[in-house]
């Protein structure tokens, strides 16, 4: 579009008291921009002034005032580009005022105000960005499906389907077993759901199945699994099959280039190419087969559930696991559902039952994948013993007893039962004694070691999400059929435990129930509603051509200048969400509705051919280059210029909160928010240093075991890139210490000034960048 600029400076909130507004306005006016000022741009009169200009054709606005994180709904106009120069939070409220001696008209008494210099730079950066960005246009599918696929017909999947169907959506449930119900259908009873929370209740699964059948817009396919899911949100092509069924494999031509030649580079014939392709994709043939007749869906709810953790005698030799009368909690539940509790070995009454919650043997950890659910199951199953035998005894040995929320009332009621004994204790051994067992526990609450006789021993096996070892979604994605980097999440299907429940690493596929985390049946029913709503939100966002999350409403998507693509595949491999496939040459094949708009592909590309309409290599690079870097020709003691590229999700909010607390940040720093540290391209760092900036730091979310990155891998990928930049710095004869990456959480505003100011001190100690002034 033809841009008509308008610059608007707010003088309120202390801005006009601290800054020389005439000098600030002159930064833009000297370059021919029209500048207007107002004491309250966000007020009625201020907005009327701006609206009048917009109605008169102004469509590119630089708002100089508060952070873009506030009043974002006020400073928003259709079909207008808007940039916010945050001189309130990033200058006036945070920077300490210092004046540097400068070479001026009289040389002796001429000083420059560093706060004013910072504000001037932020206005320059705003105008530089606006010059390099364009108004985004939404990406819309030609033919969008609004059907929802629910994988899993257990209590979670059925409730998710019911909730989605209530909104009018067409839903298909796929269940691999012959009937619906899942683990819920194998239970004797479930935890109480209402006052006084002391009595177990019959499972609701049968009522749920009956309710499901009343919806004409729900299709149920039992004895069916997903063979493959191809495409993207709004346009998924799903192929279904019977468990164990093989689907004919067709080699998709043209093949990737590496499949056409042998090790010596000689071209293979068609048969040899097909054989090589099959070998390369062994185990994925069904997934990669093109299926033109596949059913279309817009979004997927993954509710495939869990399986009991496998406990082995090798792992726990002291627990007599190989004995038939030592069972898991899942096995015990099926026994209880079948009738009165008896010993599996001989069918005799099981009146004395020991429930072991932690393996013990000197360790205070629980069994893998255990948690509050296994604690509640032990209490529930202890109740079964008391129901079946008036003189029955239940013994619960635990290291951690977790009863969240109102389930505490059930726990208290069980404490009052004289037939139930609970204690913290370290299980030393489960030894055979006659037909039963002698269970020994050390370090109990009684202060003594205890020995208890038992007819039956129940081990609290955890709930393992089926995605640990089963690619239940079978994605026809270049990054593989399941969820990548699942080790971060212990196999669970989440993409971000902290910020985005229900969302997986694959856009348009939402997890619910025990596949997301260990949940009770009651919690799973609530979880089902959340996932259904997320799926519907996805469909609505795709229909409008905007991002779903976490940049909800973002209309941009990555654009590629393929003429310069070298097929290095870094963008395809590094995308945290599998948004990119590739063709036979390795050229990226974008799937825009899969994209989360993080920009990781942009940061990965060595050729810098990837960008977004309003966020690209040139726009940020131009901001970097617009910062005025003083040299010895300007100052007797030239101040430093340090660039801070900060994540908009954690670091920018922390910076704003530090500003609200009036915590000081060194005035030699210039901040540029980025979508994610994963989007940072090293060329920005090179540009900053080559023009004379003295240091560059990245500030973003935590990564590693305690990761908090909104885009899962962004901070980690940035860290890898930063470690590789040493060679580039060496080529410029610069110290590696001039570039650093720091981590911060959104609630660590108090730490931010210390992090930034300490880095400034480190750079000052190194001395000025030798490129300064060139």
Automatic annotation (TrEMBL):
InterPro entries: 4Fe4S_Fe-S-bd, 4Fe4S_Fe_S_CS, FAD/NAD-binding_dom, HdrA-like, MvhD/FlpD
GO molecular function, one term: metal ion binding
Domain 4Fe-4S ferredoxin-type per the UniProt entry, residue ranges: 556-585, 586-615
Superkingdom in the source lineage: Bacteria
Keyword Metal-binding: yes
Family: Belongs to the HdrA family.
Descriptive protein name: Putative adenylylsulfate reductase-associated electron transfer protein QmoB
């Amino acid at each position: 579009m033809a841009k008509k600029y308008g610059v608007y400076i707010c003088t309120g909130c202390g801005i006009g008291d601290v800054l020389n507004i005439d000098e600030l306005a002159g930064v833009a006016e000297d370059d021919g921009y029209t500048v207007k000022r107002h004491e309250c741009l966000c007020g009625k009169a201020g907005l009327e002034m701006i609206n009048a200009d917009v109605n008169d054709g102004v469509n590119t606005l630089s708002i100089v005032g508060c952070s873009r994180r506030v009043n974002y709904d006020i400073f928003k106009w259709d079909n207008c580009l808007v940039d916010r120069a945050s001189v309130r939070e990033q200058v006036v409220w945070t920077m300490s005022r210092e004046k540097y001696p400068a070479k001026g008209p009289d040389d002796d008494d001429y000083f420059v105000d560093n706060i004013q210099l910072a504000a001037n730079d932020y206005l320059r950066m705003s105008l530089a960005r606006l010059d390099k960005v364009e108004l985004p246009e939404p990406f819309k599918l030609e033919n969008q499906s609004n059907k929802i696929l629910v994988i899993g017909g257990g209590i979670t999947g059925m409730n998710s389907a019911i909730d989605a169907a209530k909104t009018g959506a067409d839903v298909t449930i796929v269940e691999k077993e012959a009937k619906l119900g899942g683990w819920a259908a194998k239970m004797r009873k479930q935890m109480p759901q209402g006052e006084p929370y002391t009595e177990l209740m019959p499972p609701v699964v049968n009522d749920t199945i009956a309710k499901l059948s009343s919806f004409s817009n729900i299709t149920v396919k039992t004895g069916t699994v997903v063979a493959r899911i191809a495409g993207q949100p709004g346009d998924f092509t799903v192929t279904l099959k019977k468990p164990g069924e093989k689907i004919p494999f067709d080699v998709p031509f043209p093949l990737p280039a590496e499949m056409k030649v042998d090790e010596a580079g000689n071209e293979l014939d068609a048969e040899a190419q097909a054989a090589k392709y099959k070998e390369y994709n062994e185990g994925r043939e069904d997934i990669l087969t093109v299926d033109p007749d596949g059913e279309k869906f817009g979004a997927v709810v993954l509710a495939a559930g869990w399986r009991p953790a496998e406990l082995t005698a090798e792992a726990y030799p002291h627990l007599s696991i190989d004995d038939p009368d030592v069972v898991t909690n899942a096995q015990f539940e099926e026994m209880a559902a079948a009738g009165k509790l008896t010993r599996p070995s001989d069918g005799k009454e099981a009146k004395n039952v020991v429930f072991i919650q932690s393996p013990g043997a000197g360790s205070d950890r629980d069994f893998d994948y255990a948690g509050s659910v296994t604690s509640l199951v032990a209490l529930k199953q202890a109740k079964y013993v008391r129901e079946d035998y008036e003189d029955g005894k239940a013994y619960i040995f635990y290291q951690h007893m977790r009863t969240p929320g109102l389930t505490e009332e059930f726990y208290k009621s069980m404490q009052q039962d004289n037939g139930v004994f609970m204690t913290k204790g370290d299980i030393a051994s489960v030894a055979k004694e006659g037909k039963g067992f002698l269970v020994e526990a050390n370090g109990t609450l009684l202060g003594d070691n205890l020995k208890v006789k038992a007819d039956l021993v129940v081990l609290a096996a955890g709930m393992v999400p089926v995605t640990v070892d089963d690619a239940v979604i079978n994605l026809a994605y270049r990054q593989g059929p399941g969820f990548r980097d699942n080790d971060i999440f212990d196999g669970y299907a989440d993409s971000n435990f902290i910020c985005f429940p229900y969302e997986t690493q694959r856009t348009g596929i939402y997890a619910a129930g025990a596949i997301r985390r260990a949940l009770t049946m009651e919690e799973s029913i609530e979880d089902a509603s959340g996932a259904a709503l997320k799926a519907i939100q996805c469909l609505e966002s795709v229909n409008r051509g905007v991002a779903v999350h976490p940049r909800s409403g973002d209309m941009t998507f990555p654009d590629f200048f393929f003429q310069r693509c070298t097929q290095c595949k870094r963008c395809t491999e590094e995308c945290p969400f599998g948004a990119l496939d590739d063709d036979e040459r390795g050229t990226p094949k974008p799937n825009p509705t899969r994209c989360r708009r993080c920009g990781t592909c942009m940061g990965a590309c060595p050729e810098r051919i990837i960008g977004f309409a309003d966020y690209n290599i040139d726009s940020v690079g131009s901001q970097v280059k617009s910062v005025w870097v003083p040299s010895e020709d300007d100052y007797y003691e030239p101040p430093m210029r340090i660039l801070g590229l900060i994540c908009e999700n954690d670091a920018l909010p922390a910076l704003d909160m530090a500003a609200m607390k009036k915590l000081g940040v060194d005035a030699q720093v210039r901040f540029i928010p980025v979508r994610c540290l994963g989007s940072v391209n090293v060329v920005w760092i090179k540009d900053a240093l080559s023009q004379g900036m003295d240091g560059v730091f990245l500030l973003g979310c935590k990564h590693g075991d305690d990761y908090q990155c909104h885009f899962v891998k962004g901070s980690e990928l940035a860290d890898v890139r930063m470690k590789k930049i040493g060679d580039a710095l060496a080529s410029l004869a610069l110290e590696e210490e001039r570039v650093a990456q720091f981590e911060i959480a959104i609630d660590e505003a108090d730490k931010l000034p210390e992090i930034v100011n300490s880095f400034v001190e480190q750079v000052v100690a190194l001395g000025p960048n030798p490129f300064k002034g060139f």
